[in-house]
Amino acid sequence: MHLHGCIPLTFAFVPCVSCAYTVQAESLGLIDQVVDKSEVVAAAERLMQQLIKSPPLALAGTKTVLREDFCALWEQYYQTEPVGAWAFLNEPATLKTLEGALQRLSGGASKRSKM
Asked: Can you tell me the distance from the alpha carbon of 85 to that of 90, in angstroms, rounded to the nearest whole number?
């Protein structure tokens, strides 16, 4: 999907220029540019410069399109997420793992044994 004035959302850097799948993906419009592995950084920098120069409304439109699917999925479960998270955090295996991590971060049993 393209918005007027936006950078194409399908832009991708593919490290294998000679692979048949890259030619096919480009011909299908799944990617907009195939670059050699040695040119990936330069191509990314050129894209970044284009994005920086994009009008604010175009960037806002691009962000909206990119976030749309995530937001729709999140709206389906955000009310039940805390219940599931709390149940996970109270599982014995999770508590044991968290306790071990906290002990390591605080110096563990070595500090307690010296006291």
From this structure: 9
